[in-house]
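The authors assume throughout that readers already know how a fold can be written as discrete tokens. Each protein is reduced to its one-letter sequence and a matching series of backbone shape codes. I therefore recommend that a typical entry be quoted early in the introduction. For illustration, here is how one protein appears when written out as sequence plus structure tokens:
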Amino acid sequence: MSSEDQKKREAFAAIQQLISQSPSVAALQLQLAQGQFGVSGSPNGEIAPPAALGEQYLVFSLADRELAVKAELVQGVERLVELTPVPNVVPWVKGVMNLRGSIVSVVDLRMFLDIEQVAYTPQTRLLSLQANEMVICLAVDGVSEMLPIPATAINGNVRQAIIPSWAAPYSMGGALLPNRGIVILDVARLLFSEKMQRYKA
């Protein structure tokens, strides 16, 4: 067995161990390991085993910013698919899709947050989030990685430094990491916001 095969076996063994602790986090790790997000784990294609320090967050991009949500609230990351339009809804609801047997609304997060619109690209992803039995897919610019972020790195008082005004109402703080700042979104605050609930045109 080559050392590369051994590394892959170790990575998948670590993912299997995660399954008992958090099935959704393990599933996302597996998607990352298989390259389903359209990014590779490292430049030479090696699969890194999940890190154990800090709670796991899924990092995604929107308008040249890095944002993250708790991985346990992520149901999956999907490639852009053809959506079924819904009449009489606000423009930021792009339609509905069948997500593993459930009909789920798809929200364009740029449009919802009043950010400049750009055309969807091959990197565009649908991020399905769940909070209190509510599931919504958000169209985001791209998904990059799973990242352990220690609670001590998340600061609610760094709003002006790294949190743009369009994200402030839905963020729980920012994580200042070496060479990067990540906006941490509060999924429940986003999904149950008054604006999100008023989707009828």
